[in-house]
Amino acid sequence: MAIVVLLAQRVLLLIGVVFGVITIMFVLSRVLPASPAELMLGGRPSFEMIAKAEAELGLDRPLAVQYLNFIGSAIRGELGDSLLTKRPVLLEVRERFGATFELTTLAMVLVLLIGVPIGVLSAVRQNSMLDNVVRTISVAGVAIPSFILAMSLQLLFYGALGWLPLQGRVDTSILLRNPIKPITGLFLIDAPLTGNWEGFTSALAHIALPLLTLTILLLATVTRITRNMMIEVLKEEYIRTAFAYGLPKSAIYYQYALKATLIPILTVIGLTYGNLLGGAVVVESVFDWPGLGSFVVSSIAQNDYPASLGATLFLAGTYLLINLIVDLLYPVVDPRLRTA
Amino acid sequence: MMMQTDVTERPDRLIRARAFFGQHRLFVLGAAILLVVLSGAVLATWIAPYEPTKIMMSERLSPPGAEHLMGTDRFGRDIFARVLHGGRISLLVGLCVVLLSLVIGVPIGLVAGYFGGRTDLLLMRIADVFLAFPPLLLPIAIAAALGPGIWNAVIALGVSWFPGTARIMRGAVLRVREELYIGAARTIGLGHLSILVRHVLPNSLTPVIVAASGDFGYAILAGASLSFIGLGARAPAVEWGLMAADSRVDFLDHSWTALFPGLAIFVTVLALNLVGDGLRDILDPKQGRRE
User: Fold this and answer.
1) Which of A260, B73, B263, B279 has the most CB within a 10 Å radius?
2) Contacts of residue B288 in chain A, CB cutoff 8 Å?
């Protein structure tokens, strides 16, 4: 019963935030330097042409009506047409979402697999050699600009060693000769499902560098948060009690303490996913990765405002959804939260 | 007696200074690096061997050497001169972003924490909306709407960051509000405004200042990222993120074009983070790391 109440609370809060996000996007779409109608027409349209286009877009109506229309269409997922390709933005966004999802989710898995154990170990052996190394690296790690890291990896693995491709998601020759048939939109799943091993190897080689960039970028943060949270857990009285009972250390760390760290790790997942989605914007641009992040950047560069607004809205929505899932998982992991 | 205290005071001060340096080694290191970067930026006009925008096509893409300490870019512009000058914009951007987020966030956090209730609920839900965007995405959207330009980037970053500042401020105010001296001030009939400004504000600023010093480095990173994707500084302005973006055509064969602006950002942000961490330890030892 308590879980239902919690769920209802969370969803209500989320609805409020979604309206807020849509409102911000509406305000942003109206402070653009040029009127959307002018941008849509391009070139140097006459006043009559602008007026006609504005009427078509509903821009001649009162601001309140425009706002309500904006909310309505955003909820229905009608994000308008891209000014550049003239196709619905939702379609463009959907095509690119797979690329971003594949990259960020894999990065997430890697970051957790590497960062969490290191953070735990660093906390257990506080002030040891390992701990000091980890702390030093994590201070330095958060100071690296993402684009410089991306370019350095390109320099090393493409320029100097020639092991990995420079950019893109798959070889162009494969796209032409033997394209990966979309099932889920994730190349690393679709390629083996359709038996396209050539495509799979190429996709794997292409994802390696952007994946490595995002993983390194987030590793420092995740390790540090895990370490700090684990230190807090180790201060808890039941841990001290367990030590006093003389339980074996491994049992204390891996059965008693680790269970309690599941909660902070959930928090880390929520935070990290946001950072990954944000970081993907720059990293995808460097690697020409055909995802939502590079789409946002290229549509901004080309004044394609419905496309950039739509993609931003979609990315924010993804982040909200992930945080909702994380919030709902808290009571699953922590029985104390079930009676909220 | 006077003589004696005079004699003992000096070594005591020295010992204390040495203890401070010993205890906060990383802080001192960060501050030293920062001083170098800052002097480089301030004195760029006098130190730099060339004009940062001077085009010398005959010397294009020369590697680092005696003539050009950090080499030249594809217009033959001296990268050392550009790195020195670029620090001006980057440091200024970081400072302005942090100040802007303080100017917006501190009053909001102050009011929310002090009055509580519905005011608090409303203000914090508004802050939640801003925090609902993945980091960097909201500044990108705002900068895109305002149009490219370094000051628009500053506004975009400051506006996106104020909720974090407001939240920290609110937390500090919630603690201060319960203090005895606030109750005393109320009892002698002081109005809300003078209690807020004269008693609550000065006593709850420390955590915000600590957080702001930590944010300085991130603000520089974010500003450079915006410039890199074309939403910040634009030529002919000289800025580190923009230099890295310009080098994308050449960096595979001429790595120094990207390496030095990148190093400049890294070293500056690292120094700022060390100073920020140190300030936290010195000013606010009880406060844990903010995540």
Assistant:
1) B73
2) 228
